[in-house]
Specification:
- Helix content is 27%, strand content 18%.
- By secondary structure, the protein is an alpha/beta fold.
- It has 2 domains: 51-205 and 240-363, 3-Layer(aba) Sandwich (Alkaline Phosphatase, subunit A), CATH 3.40.720.10; 371-436, Arylsulfatase, C-terminal domain, CATH 3.30.1120.
- Helix 5 runs parallel beside helix 7 (240-274).
- The protein is globular, with a radius of gyration of 21 Å.
- The relative contact order is 0.21.
Length: 444
């Protein structure tokens, strides 16, 4: 489910590619003119920022952010978004953390990099991360976070000078350790904090829970992910009332996690500000993917590419940054090029994303995943979104302007819109097949 945007229309306008960015012959990122890139959405009244703070939020549904929905679960994020540059039509490139962070940190789709994660296998050498690009320009860097994928064996963390991660940490622990790490960085610096909340298990401190008086607690321990999965696997055996009660209780716990995460992001940013560390810093708030609560007959994430899992957050904040709402479609691959442009650096040659605001409005946005015996890809242009399920060899087509919740499949093989999107998507299908060493599926 997606609720109406508070500050922008629901209509998409897909962002086009920005072309080949320039770099120095040595591979060191080239400095951009201090006047800024013409057309870039990020513009500053004064000098460019020097330092960088990235806060990535795991498993955050965009309709739980008050700025988008009008709700009250995220007062900290809402206040920040009201003062910054918000990408109002932003898409995740996948539905789970590994490929999503690859897009965010590399500025390229996994298939552009010749790699598509299927589990926790290490990424191949040669993928250049944001930390590496910044390190080549003299930036010190630190990564602090709770996520088992932020591990040297997976290779999402290359380029960071200091890595402090543990998949079991609470949001409070991430905040504390990130503030400690920040005090050890000398300018110019890059701090990245990754919060696992609101990922399962939904175990936020009790003070963040808002349980309606008339909502009876379920008999199941929904703070235990194994119990949750077992209950959901028995979904077909539940009647409508049992299903409604189950999801209502899950939503209460999930929203508590969102409130807890939001509070801790506030503690982090307030702490950095109190220490004078945000005076010359660009702050980037992003999410990796969302969460599904049976809007499309699935639970959690990693099983589909519908909006509950692929709508994402991306916003930028900093001294002198002129606030704006960018209503064209953007992808996670655009974040790194936009950040580097704001810092006065060009993206790495491998980046295929666009500096936000520079590109023309008809670039397709892609997403995909290979997981749990499922392979699904999507292409989106304007208000039209096409999904292709490899195993079923089936397409789905949705008109997002009239059907933003993607409930009515409009696919018709004779429809020119469907065929045009197939033509756009199919090279991505062929590329993924090459990456996987698999046969190209037959188009229906």
């Amino acid at each position: 489910m997606r609720l109406p945007l508070a500050s922008a229309a629901l209509m998409f306008a897909a962002l086009a590619c920005s072309g080949e960015p320039g770099t120095a012959d040595s591979g060191t990122p080239a400095l951009l003119p201090d006047t800024g890139t013409p057309g870039a959405v990020l513009s500053f009244a004064g000098s460019r920022p020097v330092n960088l703070v990235v806060v990535s939020l795991d498993t955050l549904r965009r309709d739980r952010i008050g700025w988008f929905s009008g709700g009250d679960t995220t007062p900290v994020l809402d206040a920040r978004l009201a003062q910054g540059v918000v990408l109002a039509q932003h898409r995740a490139c996948s539905n789970w953390t590994y490929p999503a962070l690859l897009c965010l940190l590399s500025g390229a789709y996994p298939t552009d990099l010749g790699f598509m994660p299927r589990n926790t296998e290490p990424a191949p050498p040669g993928i250049e991360t944001l930390a590496e690009v910044l390190g080549a320009s003299g930036y010190g860097s630190a990564l602090v976070g709770s996520q088992y994928l932020l591990d040297p064996s997976v290779a999402l963390i290359q380029g960071f000078d200091h890595v402090d991660t543990d998949g079991e940490w609470s949001a409070e622990t991430v905040t504390s350790r990130a503030l400690d790490a920040a005090t050890e960085l000398a300018e110019p610096w890059y701090l990245h904090a990754h919060y696992l909340d609101p990922h399962l298990p939904y175990t936020a401190p009790a003070e963040f829970e808002r349980r309606p008086d008339d909502l009876a607690s379920t008999a199941f321990d929904l703070t235990d992910p194994e119990v949750v999965h077992a209950v959901i696997e028995g979904w077909d055996d539940l009647d409508e009332d049992e299903r409604a009660a189950l999801l209502a209780n899950v939503a209460v716990l999930y929203d508590a996690e969102v409130r807890y995460m939001d509070h801790q992001v506030g503690v982090l940013l307030d702490g950095l500000e109190a220490g004078g560390l945000l005076e010359q810093a660009l702050v980037v708030l992003v999410s990796d993917h969302g969460e599904q609560f049976y809007e499309h007959n699935q639970f959690e994430h990693g099983g589909s590419l519908y909006g509950e899992e692929t709508w994402a957050l991306a916003s930028f904040h900093g001294p002198g940054l002129n606030p704006a709402v960018h209503a064209d479609g953007t992808s996670q691959i655009d974040v790194a090029p936009t950040v580097l442009d704001a810092l006065g650096l060009a993206p790495a040659p491998q980046a295929t994303g666009a500096v936000v605001g520079v590109a023309a409005p008809e670039r397709p946005l892609f997403a995909g995943f290979v997981r749990q015996r499922l392979t699904v890809q999507s292409a989106e242009i304007g208000d039209d979104r096409l999904l292709f399920n490899w195993g079923l060899e089936a397409f789905e087509l949705y008109g997002l302007a009239q059907d933003p919740q993607e409930q009515t499949d409009l696919y018709d093989a004779d429809d020119p819109t469907a065929q045009a999107l197939i033509d756009v998507l199919w090279p991505q299908v062929e590329r993924l097949a090459e990456v996987l060493g698999a046969e190209v599926p037959e188009a229906p």
